[in-house]
Amino acid sequence: MAGLIKREDIDEVRQRTDIKEVVDGYVTLKSAGVGSWKGLCPFHDERSPSFHVRPHMGSYHCFGCGEGGDVISFVQKMDHTSFAETVEKLAARISFELRYEDGGTGPRREDSGKRQRLLDAHKIAAEFYRDQLLTPEAATGRAFLQERGFDRAAAEHFGVGYAPQGWDGLLSHLTGRGFLLDELKLTGMFSVSSNNSGRLYDRFRGRLMWPIRDITGDTVGFGARKLYEDDPGPKYLNTPETSLYKKSQVLYGIDLAKREIAKSRQLVVVEGYTDVMACHLAGVGTAVATCGTAFGAEHIKIARRLLSDDGTGGEVIFTFDGDAAGQKAALRAFEEDQRFNAQTYVAVGADGADPCELRQTAGDQAVQNLISTRRPLFEFAIKASFDQFDLSTGEGQTKALRHAAPIVANIRDVSLRSVYTRELSRWLGMQFVGEDQVARAVTAAAKRATQPAQDGQQDAQNPQSRQGAQSPQSRQPAQAPGSGPALVEEVPQFRRPDPRDPVARMEREALEVVLQYPQLLDQDQWDRFSDSRFSVPAYAALHDAVRAAGTAGRDRADSASNWVERVRQEVPDMLRGYVSELAVTPLPATDGDGVAAYCRDILSRLSELRITRLKAEKLSSLQRLDPAADPSLFQQLNRELMELEMERRALRSD
Asked: Are residues 57 and 114 in the same domain?
């Protein structure tokens, strides 16, 4: 039974994972001062690097688009995995065994080890197939690719390879690399002899090979295309279901398309491996394909996660052949339409050509035009269904209206629903069915679709809404790049402070110090920081969060990454980007001693600012006071002023 990962284990994974080492797998980083690294942001296009990583803090932040967080949120955003999946992945990376609440379980260490062995076998197999594509035997495979407009660079980009015609080419290669037969049986890359010998032999022979990768880029299976007439097998042969490869949960090309899908909020679903290649090479980098199965509920979960499918935009475009089979596939896709908040479309070429054929005959622009001229999927489904009705008669039009009205009623965009109510009247023909009658039918269909049933269906189909409840950060809605600072500016009470304001600058610098080097504060400094009053609303909220995190029984000497995360959890959602920003801002120091001196100076200046404010308040009270009326209060205020002045002088002497 799956369970929530224990909070202390999440903290341990965050603390023990080197964020720089992880980010290095995605971004080229260069030194940017003491303990700071920077590079081009992976979340938005830029020419000058504004993406900063502070390994000591376990934090990253882009000063260009506002994205920021810890190593867990970084991997979540880059690989589009859930919070729990990300923690489990990072835990496996450092060989840390997670514990789960309420007796729940996760992947066992031995199972993780077995999975890694299978992944290693697939990785080596993919390399083997790629090398084989360059051999003389693979000439037929290379010709197949060339005829479809794919050169050597394209083949390498997509990892296309060739399986030799022998019975044990891959088997010998993998056993020579130390893999055991019992392990190889589990990969799906081998078949077992039907006689009593039980010997293994290569499943894929004499075929063009496409590696099928999961969303993180790991090869989990293969798709194989028949090349020779004497091959008795099917045209396409895929890896059978294994612990790694489940065809209902994988999309070919998702590893290459995920960033563009998330960026443009568009997903294009095509039918084959070569169609994915053609789309990407033609500039449609959001294309993916299913692997021998229809686009179903599990695929939709992946798509919704990538699209941030929250009802604020996004589109899913299905491309199908123009024949009867293609129309049937489109109607199957339409049955899943209501699982999306994004708008769904269908793109079918005028001559029924698929993207690969279209690119061959008409070039890259034709593929782009195919996608840009997409039609709403419900329109396609309605018109396709009209084939079963005789629209030349009143009876046929009435039956067609009864069939189509619920489809139009389910269109989420109200304004679009009105447009297609009028369109439906035109499609049916005005001779027997008028526009008013169509509108009444659509309204009646909408009323029949009761709201409670729709709400229950939405919850059942959106398991993402009930996952990731292991941290406040994992529960907040996905935000587009740039939502950090911009969001602060959009909320009046937390408007971005003027950097020219000396008080605001002082408060910001103090927060940077306390977030980045809490271990340098002694108890006296911590108390003075806690007693300080922050005048800038955004910084006052952060000051409150720091005090809450520091007084909630947490050890400030704990790892910096967990300290920052605890502060981040204490602030309002719109200020979490600020926490990351302040945690990675480089301090003006060239070495460790300089950092310590800078921190002492900033905190002293903050304390002096506090003293100045208190002195002004007491002087004001003193000026309003009649010494004869209340001599004891007069003496007390003078004494407090003297103590404040002594405290100020002591600070300066330090």
From this structure: no
